[in-house]
Amino acid sequence: MRSHLLDTNILSDLMRHPQGRIRSHLERVGDNAACTSIIVAAELKFGVEKSESVALRDNLNAILSALEILPLKPPADQRYAEIRTHLDTAGKTIGPNDMLIAAHCLAEGLVAVTANTGEFGRVPGLKVENWLAS
Fold first, then answer.
1. Is 47 exposed, middle or buried (0-12, 13-18, 19+ CB in 10 A)?
2. Which of 33, 36, 65, 69 has the largest count of CB atoms under 10 Å?
3. pLDDT of amino acid 31
């Protein structure tokens, strides 16, 4: 059962260090517990495209083929509206893609796995883990 949504910086680390810390955490929670968002996949594909690295493209394709990539669908749109309203009102906005990823996690009941705890930590009710810090 899915429980953890892997953010861009987590999958980027896995691409560069396939047997590193992220692999250890995946083994701990179970490979089937991890997934990612179509937004994360798009961010990663942009980075690989921009880098023009065949090796990174191959690593990314291997990782994405092994993970479930969740489509963005309701009620993520409502969670996004709530998050954005809250953060705008508090004067503590975060990046637009991070808001969408956070909304995706909340809508699916998933833990956000990210090294960007400063931004994701501002989202009320979002569970966050940093697998690069442990």
1. middle
2. 36
3. 73
Arch. (CATH architecture) of 4-129? 3-Layer(aba) Sandwich (3.40)
- Residue 103 corresponds to which amino acid? A
- What's the pLDDT tens digit per position in 60-114? 999 999 999 999 999 999 999 999 999 999 999 999 999 999 999 999 999 999 9
Domain boundaries, the chain: 4-129
Q: Mean pLDDT across the stretch 10-18?
A: 93
Closest CA to 34 of 118, 126, 108: 108
Distance, in Å, from the CA atom of 62 to the CA atom of 42, rounded to the nearest integer, reads 15
Alpha-carbon separation of residue 112 from 27, 51, 98, 123 (angstroms):
17, 26, 10, 11
CA-nearest of 111, 124, 116 to 29 is 111
Alpha-carbon distance of 111 to 60, in angstroms, equals 22
